[in-house]
Amino acid sequence: MTINQIRQRLRDFIHSSEKVTVLTGAGISAESGIPTFRGPEGFWTVGSREYHPQEMATFEMFTRQPFEVWKWYLYRIGICAKAEPNSGHLAVSQLEELFTDNFTLITQNVDNLHLRAGNSPDRTYQIHGNIFFTRCMGECAGRIQSLPEGLHAKKKGEVLTEKEKQLLHCPRCGKLLRPHVLWFDETYNEEYYRFHSSIQTASQTDLLLIVGTSGTTNLPNQVAWQVYQNGGTIFDINIDRNPFSEIAEKSRGGTFIQGSSASILPEIVEIFCKE
Ligand code: OAD
After folding, report:
1. Mean per-residue pLDDT, 158-177
2. For the chain, which domains are there?
3. Per the confidence metrics, is the pTM higher than 0.90?
């Protein structure tokens, strides 16, 4: 597909009242300095062993070593808090401004950067949660709460104080608080992760922009297949080919666009704005 064909295909959407969905992964935050999930920076040492995120981010690990898992999350919270939204995030928030009620953002990122860039909480489905929130492991499980006041980000290797461990208990029932994120040994649901809303959005989507994801998790794959099967158009924006590239190329008028999200997404917004 030539650049002019891509431009023309995108222009078709701005004049119609068609539904636009953006599906993002760790790649969009890479240029904000947040390491991607499968990059080499993900490892974490507990005792004399190196753990991969796929071992740390599990209910099983949390049950065995809750404060080691919290140390890891407090370290990651520090990285996310210091990061700033980049031009890719800002472009996604401009897309919401342009398409208003016809726009939905489905993000796998827990770093909060889309909301900080201006996307609205109502139209943003954080399907893997948000690292800045917690939930009670016990009977208060339904309540999503902000991080307890007085709890601070940690440097790598820094231990938790007794006071901090105390703060990581639910103020209502005294059970442990957990990060409000989907772990590898858990399943999606609507209540916390907008599972059904995402599938429903996909079933109505005319244009899907997939950005910076390696396509390894279940719900994003279901979203892409749903859009494809309904005859929607898919653009896959990524620095490397990935499992979504082929679906995009097979979709009606869609394609794989190789490049960084921080440069490609603003170009897409510009195409829409010129119309
Ligand atoms: P990955 O780390 O698996 O993949 C990041 C993707 O971003 C890769 O395809 C890169 O090629 C691409 N990428 C990197 N830099 C980019 C850039 N500047 N512009 C565009 N693309 C870029 O991250 P995810 O696909 O998000 O789930 O991983 C999905 C989920 O896997 C995560 O949310 C997490 C993990 O398991 C849970 O924790 C449940």
Report:
1. 93
2. 1-33+85-128+188-275 (3.40.50.1220), 35-82+131-181 (3.30.1600.10)
3. yes
